[in-house]
Amino acid sequence: MDLSFLGSGGGRFTTISQKRMTGGFRIDDLAGLNFHFDPGPGALVRSYQFGLNPSSLDGIFISHAHTDHYTDGEILIEAMTRGMTKETGLIIGSKSAIDGYEKWGPCISKYHKSLSSNIILDSNSKRSFEGFSIKGTKTIHGDPSGIGFQIDDGNLKISYTSDTKYFDDLSEYHKNADILIASVLRPAGRRIRGHMGSEDFLKLVEEIQPKLAIMTHFGFKIIQANPQKEADFIQEETGIDTIAAFDGMRINLDNINLDGSYELIHLNDRFKHNNGFKHSNNRNIDNKQKKLDSY
Ligand SMILES: [Zn+2]
């Protein structure tokens, strides 16, 4: 089983600037199936960039109705259904993502929902399939119907907190996770509303005692502080293997339950020869706005 990060960025400003990529992550070969979690902006392109085929997907998971978690959802559904010609696949997500909730979502149109099984999860629901089960986990974040996930193939439990602040029973929802993936937006000492910072993640890792803890979804300030340094500190304090995700990171998890070992792979960047784009910083928004004001 492989866990591949098509981005390690999150939050508005990292996403707008693409300081880190925001394509979410994929689990390949879980009970023989391939799943994409939280396909933010770039998920389609990053899949190809790192050599993953979106047409091989069997399911798409969307935790909540914020752009850094859903924008490429519909195009990945098109890939999964061979351009909306084949009835197949699962779309699993929060109420907001699938049906819309209050001012949030829906993130997927009726058209894109029409050929796949649609499953809405809340923090008290669990669904079982052949070879795996999936349960919703509680979050406290802007979107009130937002969730995280714990997926279990009978051998390995992989938990993903999605975006949430730390709260007392957060660890209850992710209990017994072998692999704990968390959105850690801020470095130690720089907390922000609705999100975890490094010290929150440290507490959570201590409570859950996973075999491997992975931090991702980095905002500007933790990128500046160097996420790997924060991860090293957490590892030192807890004694638990802790990794800061990077763009194009793959972890092979086949042996983690046998001898605790995992293989860390840098996926080949197939766009490497492209020089990318340059930002221009001299744009004057006020002047531009004047041009857009109507008289
Ligand atoms: Zn987010």
Automatic annotation (TrEMBL):
This is Ribonuclease BN. PANTHER family: HYDROLASE C777.06C-RELATED (PTHR42663:SF6), HYDROLASE C777.06C-RELATED-RELATED (PTHR42663). The keyword Repeat does not apply. It is an enzyme of class 3 (hydrolase). Residues 34-218 form the Metallo-beta-lactamase domain. Its EC number is 3.1.26.11. One of its GO terms (molecular function) is 3'-tRNA processing endoribonuclease activity. Coiled coil: none annotated. The keyword Amino-acid biosynthesis does not apply. Keywords: Hydrolase. SUPFAM superfamilies: Metallo-hydrolase/oxidoreductase. Signal peptide: none annotated. It comes from Methanobrevibacter curvatus.
